[in-house]
Fold these 2 entries.
Entry 1:
Amino acid sequence: MVTVTLKVNGKTRSATVPPETTLLRMLRDQFDLTGAKLGCDVGDCGACTVIVDGQPVNSCLMLAGQADGRDVLTIEGLADAEHLHPLQKLFEHFGSLQCGFCGPGVIMSAKALLDENSNPSTQEIRDALGGNLCRCTGYAKMIEAVKGAGCMMRGEEIPEVKSA
Amino acid sequence: MKAFDFYAAKDANDAVALLAQHAADPKVRVKVIAGGTDLLADWKFSPHGPDVVVDISRAEELKTITLTEQGLVIGALVTHTQIMRSPLIQQMFPALVHAAHTIGAVQTRNRGTLGGNLVTAVPSMDSGPTLMALEAIVTIAGWGGRRQVPLSEFFVGPRKTILKPDELLAEIIIPKANLGKPTHFYKFGLRKGQALALVNAAASFWVDWGKNTFVAARISLGAVAPKVIRATQAEAFLEGRTITPEAMAEAGRVAVNDARPISDFRASAEYRKNLVAVLTKRCLEGAWALAQTKRVEGSNGNRNA
């Protein structure tokens, strides 16, 4: 067994798990953080995306033991009781998700992008979401939402819905 | 995933010590893990997973990109994202930046390492051709010390390298003589995102500006042989030849003879041969464009500038 102590959404958490446990399994089974989804489990779909030390990663391809001492942010760490994150607000506003399974991963990838660059081009957004597969909504409304969230974070007005 | 014992190495020396300790027993299957983007995906579906895993992801000394007397030294744990963002690599080798960008997606590039891409030794690896076209050398660390071999001798076959169970890939070095050598990488996959290469290629050459000829042309091809190869016949064809579009196209046709592609579910051998000709030509054109730009900028588009 390995004992892992890490920061999750700002709080120090600890768990003792078998060494072959992935970060994703630990988040879901030990900490009841089920926002990150188990999709393909081989790093193709991005449904398990979380932010580790500021960078989006597939939590299904990281061992829990490798996350010891790291700072992990999951979708559960974005909103508080009163406020949604701008991305969450804009995904709702634009109707950017239908089934929503890919959503937590998409939003974490988008957050990592906007944290570095709050005014990304369409191509930069497409590149940032290239590792997140959505098979029902498609990407047009997601891209609008990411651009809108960027506007909101920069304190500018949000453009009207184009694809509705 | 099959159960295994897990050891987190503090640094490279600790990792080598852990490997020496556990690999001494030939019945124990020991594997080194860094980014884990290839290994974990494999182990989840394989009954032959490792017995012992040594995690080297905390070896900070293997995460640096530095210029030394020997050349540009890239630590084995440097991620593809780090390569894309390194001002040094952006300036000297845009081909390496481009190659890194074609690997996986942001999430895999943030975890996946240059060393891991080479050690996995998949013939379609996107890090291979550019480094081979730049005659890279690798440093291997073991209990008995360090040794260096050309990257071309590091690969043995599909998923096989010369690494012994108790050894670690520590550094990738682009020799000083090739710093700034105009190089171009081209990958042909079926999509822009997350696609494996049907064929990938890289070309590098210096220019004799007085004679307008190719000097030290190096061409490397991926996914057309059991390992990443050099297209030596095409290289010999170009040496000393006048730089023309026709020569570049002909070098592409010659390179087809250097390739030994197979047919698989991604593409037929015949299609891959066509790709070799086209990609080789485009890599030469790309390197030529870069050489001209570097000359205008006054940087080293030729060796003696």
Entry 2:
Amino acid sequence: MKQSKRLGPISLLLISKGPEDIIEASTTKEFQEFIYFNTFKILKDEIENNPGGDFTIFNIPNMGVRINLKPNQLSTVLEKTKHYFENKEEFEKCMAIQKLIETL
Amino acid sequence: MINPQYIKNISLMFQNLYGVDVEIEDFNDEDKDSFVTLINSLDAAVDIEVSLPLPAEPTEKDIEKMVNGNKLVKDLSDLSSYLWGVVDFLIEKMFTPKVKELIEWYLYERIDEWGEVVPYIDEEGEEIIFNTPDDLYYYSRSLYFSDK
């Protein structure tokens, strides 16, 4: 039997000097690239291999929390991710995301 | 449970990025509870130790005994120095040298002589305030994972 290797949640280390720094850190280009790129990767894998269930998209081990998404949130998240790549003019990724949206 | 302000800000961060309210699942209560218990116990031990009178100077007779190869135990500081050595060793094994240094700072230097909380200065020269062992826990986890 063929077993597909699932990507699983991505570990995200949020190093902050206090809760207020978290919002600020999330506005940096590097952080947004990390989040949206991995969001695209994980959602693609999730939709293709395990459609329909709740799942963890990120682990934040140093805070001891997981970020979970529900199936009815995926299209909004994908639209946001597509919008990010449209602004960066990465149209191949946009097309791939649009295909995923259509399969939902 | 993680500091509610962290939960709120992580939630806000993902709301900005994703446009939805993500679920934030806390999986780490047990680690934090153990850490906080450890720090509170060490803190209480340090408080007791610093409130004890200083050991008396050895007398001529004591010195004579030591010269003759006898162990001189005049008070509990002789015992506690060994025990603190064990604690240091175990903490470094459990965490990392940087976390051990931070815990030592928290126990001995966080409160100044007027009873005020002193900011910790990190490697980049930034000030961080640890009001509770919970604050120390979250920062220590960051250090731990960035060291590993």
